[in-house]
Amino acid sequence: VCVCVCARARALVKVIIDGNVSAETISHVCAAVSPNTAVFFEPTSNAKALRGVPSWTKGGIHFISPNEHELRTMAGHVAKSGGKTPTSTLEADTDVQVSAPVSRNLQTMFGAIDTKKKAAEAFHIVLTMGSRGVVLASSLPARVNTISLTLIPPSIAPYVTSTSGAGDTLVGATVWALLTHHRHRRHASHTRNGSLRRCDQARVSRALAVGVRAARLTVMSPHSVAPAINAAAIYNDGKK
């Protein structure tokens, strides 16, 4: 199965993989994808979050979406494994509020990425914080010693039926928005440039806003993925 997946991965723009597979499988997939394919890792749980750490530090994973507990677990593992001393500074929008421990954990995670990879490609941590929204932390090639933080505000649901599937919906809709924009840009420019491995923070932030609105629909639904989710609903929801 892994061989089949890896063979197909070379033709993909983006690959999503979660903590339900082994660290070895994650590593194989990251090694198999093309130089233009971005890998998104969804930790799933505290224990399973560790499975993505080796590939993240090698620069094979470009997006991860931990909650605060998973981030702490991953950063703690990096620190115990003899990770580099963080040297990056944090630059946050005025509406971003994160604790000192979260700041240190972000610095540890970005400081652990292979230096050459970080100088050439973009890396993003999508920190999910429930009712407080999502903080997007990004390291971009032009500013390798700076971690930029921006807040994607929560899209408050009038009621909650179930939170099951909200995280998967957030990731799925965000990636869909990124890919939709990517296809439109390629069509307009007739070029294959603009890899999601070099995706700027503003573009990821806009895609996350779509993901947050999709997650809002899911928590209002008894289903793991709300049947009401479609392009019109998640793009127009924020304009109502």
UniProtKB/TrEMBL annotation:
Molecular functions per Gene Ontology: hydrolase activity, acting on glycosyl bonds; metal ion binding; pseudouridylate synthase activity
InterPro entries, per database record: PfkB_dom (IPR011611), Ribokinase-like (IPR029056)
Pfam families for the chain: PfkB
Domain of life of the native organism: Eukaryota
Keywords (A to Z) from UniProt: Metal-binding
Gene3D superfamilies: 3.40.1190.20
Keyword Amino-acid biosynthesis: no
GO cellular component: cytoplasm
Domain Carbohydrate kinase PfkB residues, every copy: 37-223
Protein name per UniProt: Carbohydrate kinase PfkB domain-containing protein
